[in-house]
Amino acid sequence: MRPGGRAVRPAMRTLVLPALIIGFSVVVIWASLQLDLSPPMIVGESMQPRVFPIVLMIINMGLAVALALQYRIAPPKQIRLEGRSTWGTIALFGVFFVLTVYVDMIIAIAATVFLMCLLWGERRLPVALAVSVLTPTTVFLLFDKVLQIRFPRGLFTNWYYG
């Protein structure tokens, strides 16, 4: 019950999260549009720095609309947090940040993915190792070769870029 005796309609409560996601996406798009265009001499054939966050936020808004529609079809049930997995994942995001800043982003992705596999219950070490090698390799090759976007310098990227 709200103050004053009015109840919050359950249908409106399910739209709060998608609305917040869309609002956040609009703010990021607005902030991205404030970035200056880079001269062709710097970016060459690759895309402008502001294009990537805008495209990501458009995808994000589409997924938020899909989430709202899904909530309309089947409202979410109350769930309980999976203590160890939830807090372990949050801690791994902190580990990822530290490794990215002080070691290398590719190494951070590999280590975080491997530890998340173990945390979430994968018992086959070769599978967890394969996922932790293939994921950053695919991400790196996609960004470096296809999108022509270089990663920040670190141990692996210094070796790769020379």
TrEMBL record:
Pfam families reported for this sequence: TctB
Keywords of this entry: Membrane, Transmembrane, Transmembrane helix
Record domain DUF1468: where: 17-152
Record has Plastid as a keyword: no
InterPro entries, alphabetized: DUF1468
TM annotation in the entry: 12-31, 51-69, 90-121, 127-143
Keyword Chaperone assigned: no
The protein's name: Tripartite tricarboxylate transporter TctB family protein
